[in-house]
Amino acid sequence: MSFFKSLFAKKQALPTRSLDHASQLQLRDLFTFSDSFALPQAMRKMQLQVNEINTLEFKHEHYAQVIGQGAGSQLVYLSFPSNPQQLVKLSLLLTRDDVETLFDMDDFSEIFEAPGKARLKPLTNTHNYADMIADEYIQQDFMTTGYLHRQDYRGATPPQYNEDKHGQEFEFYSLQGGQEKRFIDIFIFENGDTDVYLSFLRPANEIAELWIKE
User: Fold this and answer.
1) Are 71 and 161 in contact (CB under 8 A)?
2) Could you report the per-residue pLDDT of 13-35, keeping only the tens digit for each?
3) Which one, of 131, 163, 136, 135, lies nearest residue 147 by Cα?
4) Lower Cβ count inside 10 Å, N or C end of the chain?
5) Residue 34: closest CA among 179, 212, 213, 202
6) Could you give the CA distance from residue 89 to residue 212 in angstroms, rounded to a whole number?
7) Is 31 exposed, middle or buried (0-12, 13-18, 19+ CB in 10 A)?
8) What is the pTM of this model?
9) Three-state SS for 41?
10) Which of 189, 198, 179, 182 lies closest to 103 in space, CA to CA?
11) How far apart are CA 60 and CA 16, in angstroms?
12) In angstroms, rounded to a whole number, what is the distance separating the alpha carbons of residues 189 and 148?
């Protein structure tokens, strides 16, 4: 009898892929941040689902941008630019109100003026994202050209600018602080849309759990 039971028992489907690192996340997969106090409250212990994977392309590299969303409207951006420690860049998109609260707007406007040597100090350290903010930022990128592809090109080469499927062109500005691990990243697109991110580099183990969503 046990033979027939085992013969006709429904077999559990085996996973078709492994998920050992955040850089392997695919659409609909789930991930949870640790409870580290180094993370802002917007991320700490939050469980999110991957709802979009884009590719950021620059002259000498391209890498994935994974967008996760939890129970609320807050989006969290994970990206994987080259760095010696192979840290993950965690980013939150700032609203205009956030930018005006955190920075003097006259100082902020210097980011976009040649030769691109702005220095920026936050006006407050009591913001919701205070754990991500450096004491001072020094500009590193000025009008760097890049492309945003609304597709995942991990392990592949993005279409070049003269092909039909080329990405959305942008000018990239960035400032760096906090032992070269905290950033302000700014993308200005061809249509004038501007995205300002508060970012920082963290070890991959800040993402405590990963699940494959089949």
Assistant:
1) no
2) 555 789 999 999 999 999 999 99
3) 163
4) N
5) 202
6) 21
7) buried
8) 0.89
9) coil
10) 198
11) 32
12) 9
